[in-house]
Amino acid sequence: MDSASPTMTVTAVVNGRSVTVTADIRRTLLDLLREDLLLTGTKKGCDHGQCGACTVLVDGRRILSCLTLAATTEGRSILTIEGVGAPGALHPLQEAFIRHDALQCGYCTPGQIMSALELIADSTVTTREAVREQMSGNLCRCGAYHGIVEAIMDVKAELDARAHAPV
Q1: In terms of domains, do 15 and 61 share one?
Q2: What's the confidence (pLDDT) of residue 30?
Q3: Scanning 11, 129, 135, 139, which has its CA 20 to 30 A from the CA of 119?
Q4: Secretion signal: which residues (predicted)?
């Protein structure tokens, strides 16, 4: 970073923890997460917003962190793959990805799961076709798309069953 570059102090909640970082105003959220906060689960794929490997949730909405300036996240809540589940206590979506063989090399998996997290909360997405459409911004070079769609549909069905279960 050039010493004459303008900087900004950004305070945000990342994976439930308040963090404050001073960064070049041109720095992307992806680079801030990976290089400054050492959260390397978010992947740098194309670095042009075309592959979805860098997907994270900001205030519950998925965004492409390679196209988002870190400065725009001031005061916001950021969730990365490191904040989803835990060893020995996986999130139901992570369990479904394993169960449905929705990953092969695993490079795209963090971005796929982050996009799917927003998707499973969307009650308007009810069909496999709608899931495929909504997930189309996340590319998988290995071709695990069928398993990804099945994992998402599985979790959506579980959530729907819980919502309609007698109390």
Answers
A1: yes
A2: 98
A3: 11
A4: none
Residue 53 has what pLDDT?
A: 97
- What total number of domains does the chain contain? 2
Measured distance CA(22)–CA(7) in Å, rounded: 6
Distance CA 94, CA 105 (A): 15
DSSP letters spanning 25-63: TT-BHHHIIIIIS--TTS--SSSSSSS-TTEEEETTEEE
Residue 113 structural domain: 92-163
Neighbours of 74 (CB within 10 A): 11
Q: Tokens 């060893």, residue?
A: 87
Q: Please check whether residues 13 and 73 belong to one and the same domain.
A: yes
Low-confidence stretches of the chain (pLDDT < 50) are none
Report residue 25 as tokens: 């105003």
Round to whole Å and give the CA distance between 51 and 137: 6
Contact 24, 6 (CB under 8 A): yes
**pLDDT on residue 63:** 98
Tell me, what amino acid is at 43?
K
Instruction: Write the burial class of residue 85 (CB in 10 Å: 0-12 exposed, 13-18 middle, 19+ buried).
Output: middle
Residues 73 and 100 in one domain: no
pLDDT value, residue 2: 53
